[in-house]
Design brief:
The protein is built from 24 helices and 24 strands. The protein is α+β, with helices and mostly antiparallel strands. The chain has 3 domains: 123 residues, Roll (Nuclear Transport Factor 2, Chain: A); 143 residues, Penicillin-binding protein 2a, domain 3 (Ribosomal Protein L30, Chain: A, 2-Layer Sandwich), CATH 3.30.1390.30; 335 residues, DD-peptidase/beta-lactamase superfamily (Beta-lactamase, 3-Layer(aba) Sandwich), CATH 3.40.710. The strands form 7 sheets. Strands 1, 2, 3, 4 and 5 form a 5-stranded antiparallel beta sheet that branches. This is Penicillin-binding protein. Keywords: Membrane, TPR repeat. It comes from Anoxybacter fermentans. It holds the Pfam family MecA_N.
Length: 682
């Protein structure tokens, strides 16, 4: 009897197993885990196969896959983490009617709004002997309670940071802009109005006509043509309003307030292109956004741009908000404060006038740049406010190269401003050299050897008689320095060049071109060697490099890192001592005499009370073209201020550079005296 009962029970168990009885149904954990990992990894096509028959009937595969991809792309998904919340120890899943609900804790990291809460319920159903996902739209996003709802991601643009000078004067930032346009129905003489307005806006009449012929244009509608600055509006206001049909509306936008000569340093903005958008999409950029194209605007794009805010909402078919997923405010970009003194920059601009060239002013002991003038400059607002492509093309292709930042990218022949380095090379590395020895140079031209043929080194007229280093420097005697280089050879020149950073990257906020002494080492061509001694030959230097070398000579012989941003460390040493203190003291005295001696070529720069020191230079650029230089500093001992002026195509060589420098020095020095007196009075 017992045997028959056992056989009966066994048969019942076999039948139950075959029928898939619930007692032997697997836990849903594994299915849920596989589905969640697939979601995390974006394997939407694969996990669609895990859906229940009901879910597949509700949503087709293509819709399922595309909805996930589009939604997560809109959200800016970076990473998704989902974990199911298991039952407490000793407890099992609550399964009812072959269905179970599994709580899921989740977070999605996005580049739009940071973290998004992805807590949800995962529904599973047991069918065809396995657990399947009874998928809901909330498994895409918890707030997406209906598949007919849509996701709306609204970007809230960030305000770009401003750029200021050392005194808090705004160089770039918000300003009033005027949008000029026409109302066709109010125009009286069509051709006359278009031609007059074209001249005022620097546009072609054809372009204005094209704007007026757009399909949306109506007689009573305002047709915008071009935006201009407040200053331009105030200057031309009466002329604009004298044309029937012209209207102007104002709005706030980014405006450049600084001098044109600083524009290559500050840089301009341009619309983001497709390649940049691919690289920067996760930074919140969109087509139509403007990004830094050159200068500081480009270098500090991410720093200045700020971070856009986002409003992520769920909308129904009528566009009504059903849920707010997340909202973040935009964050204004950071401000840049420069060491530039805008007042000094403007003084330099007035002194330079229409000339092409360079003006640099700096504090020798700290490396702070006070002025970085590139001439000619350009109007940044022409890029910011969208002048015609034809006009911008003229700027880009201008032979005067206004976009080139001459102080740091221009490579020039230094001429006689290099002579102090030739002297240092001899003092440091040529023991036979005696700076006090009088050298007899009777002729105004010199040839070292017959192999030079007809080539001669020439010098400017000076008092007759032998000269030592003092006399050679103050009268800028090319023959003295050519003979010195010829005698000592190129090795001392290369050694001093290495000490002062030739062929090396200058640590500066913006990229600086390399300075070079010669194309080959050593210099075997004796003509080239002699020419190098007085600053010609193959020497090419950036004005900034020349300025920091003179700053080192004027102080303690340390080359200091040039500083453009107020937050940078001041007086940071780039290259330690370029010469002995004894030789530096001698050279400082020589440069003082070079300006203050009444017979010196540079004495025209002398200003009583300034205790000025420095050196002139006239470099031969090409046949009939010269570069006029003057580098000076004051006071001669413990200098507070260094000024470099370089003029391309100088009509009067270095004397023209002196004229400009003198005007800058007198204006700046007098302003400083006035400011000090005002402070004392307060």
């Amino acid at each position: 009897m017992r045997k028959k009962i056992s056989i009966g029970l066994l048969m019942i168990l076999i039948i139950l197993l075959i029928s898939g009885c619930v007692f032997f149904r697997p836990d849903p954990d594994e299915t849920a885990q596989v589905f969640l990992r697939g979601l995390e990894n974006g394997q939407y096509e694969e996990i669609y196969q895990m859906l229940s028959s009901e879910a597949k009937a509700r949503v087709k595969k293509d819709f399922f896959v595309n909805r996930y991809r589009e939604t997560y792309e809109q959200l800016g998904k970076i990473e998704l983490k989902l974990e199911m919340v298991r039952p407490a120890d000793g407890q099992k899943w609550e399964i009812k009617d072959n269905r179970v609900e599994i709580p899921v804790k989740g977070k999605m990291l996005t580049w739009t709004v940071g973290e998004i809460n992805m807590d949800q319920i995962l529904h599973l159903v047991y069918e065809e002997k396995e657990w399947r996902i009874d998928w809901k739209s909330t498994n895409i996003l918890p707030q997406l309670s209906d598949l007919s709802y849509s996701l709306a991601v609204t970007r809230l643009p960030a305000e770009r940071g401003n750029i200021y000078d050392r005194n808090g004067e705004k160089l770039v930032g918000p300003g009033i802009i005027y949008r000029i346009g026409l109302v066709p129905g109010k125009m009286e003489n069509w051709d006359e109005a278009i031609n007059s307005l074209a001249k005022l806006l620097d546009m072609t009449p054809e372009r204005i006509e094209q704007a007026l012929q757009q399909k949306w244009v109506r007689p009573d509608l305002f047709v915008p043509l071009r935006s201009i600055t407040k200053d331009e509006w105030l200057t031309k206001k009466d002329k604009f309003l004298a044309i029937p049909g012209v209207l102007a509306s104002s709005y706030e936008g980014r405006v450049y307030f600084g001098p044109k000569s600083l524009a290559p340093t500050v840089g301009y903005l341009g619309e983001i292109n497709q390649k940049e958008l691919q690289d920067w999409a996760t930074e919140g950029y969109e087509l139509g956004d403007k990004v830094g194209r050159t200068g500081l605007e480009k270098k500090f794009e991410k720093f200045l741009a700020g971070k856009p805010g986002y409003m992520i909402r769920i909308l129904d078919k009528e566009g009504k908000e059903q849920a707010m997923v997340k909202f973040t405010r935009s964050q204004k970009g950071n401000d840049l404060i420069l060491t530039i003194d805008q007042r000094l920059q403007k003084i330099s601009e007035l002194a330079m006038g229409e000339r092409s060239g360079v003006v640099i002013a700096m504090v020798p002991e700290t490396g702070e740049i006070l002025a970085l003038g590139s001439f000619p400059g350009y109007d940044v607002n022409e890029f910011l406010l969208g002048k015609s492509s034809t006009h911008l093309s003229k700027i880009l292709n201008d032979p005067a190269k206004p976009l080139v930042n001459r102080p740091i990218q221009g490579r020039y022949i230094p001429g006689s401003t290099f002579k102090p380095l030739t002297a240092l090379a001899a003092l440091e590395f040529y023991p036979e050299y005696d700076p006090e020895k009088k050298v007899e140079i009777s002729e105004d031209t010199w040839r070292a050897e017959p192999g030079w043929g007809s080539y001669r080194v020439k010098r400017v007229s000076r008092p007759t008689g032998p000269v030592d280093l003092y006399g050679a420097m103050k009268w800028s005697d090319n023959i003295y320095f050519a003979q010195l280089a010829y005698r000592m050879g190129s090795e001392p020149l290369f050694k001093i060049a290495e000490r002062v950073g030739f062929g090396q990257k200058i640590p500066f906020t913006l990229d600086v071109a390399y300075s070079t002494l010669a194309s080959r080492k050593p210099i075997t061509n004796t003509i080239l060697l002699a020419d190098t001694g007085y600053g010609q030959g193959q020497i090419l230097m950036t004005p900034l490099h020349l300025a920091i070398i003179y700053s080192a000579i004027a102080t303690d012989g340390k080359l200091r890192k040039p500083v453009l941003l107020s937050i940078e460390e001041k007086a940071k040493v780039w290259k330690d001592t370029i010469a002995s203190s004894e030789n530096l003291t001698l050279l400082q005295d020589v440069l003082k005499v070079t300006v203050q001696d009444e017979t010196a070529l540079a004495h025209t720069a002398y200003i009583p009370g300034l205790n000025l020191a420095g050196k002139t230079g006239t470099a031969q650029l090409s046949e009939g073209r010269v570069m006029g230089w003057f580098v000076c500093y004051y006071p001669a001992s413990g200098p507070e201020f260094l000024l470099l002026v370089g003029i391309e195509d100088a009509n009067n060589g270095s004397q023209e550079a002196i004229e400009v420098a003198r005007q800058i020095l007198m204006e700046y020095y007098q302003n400083n005296l006035d400011n000090k007196q005002e402070s004392l009075n307060q």
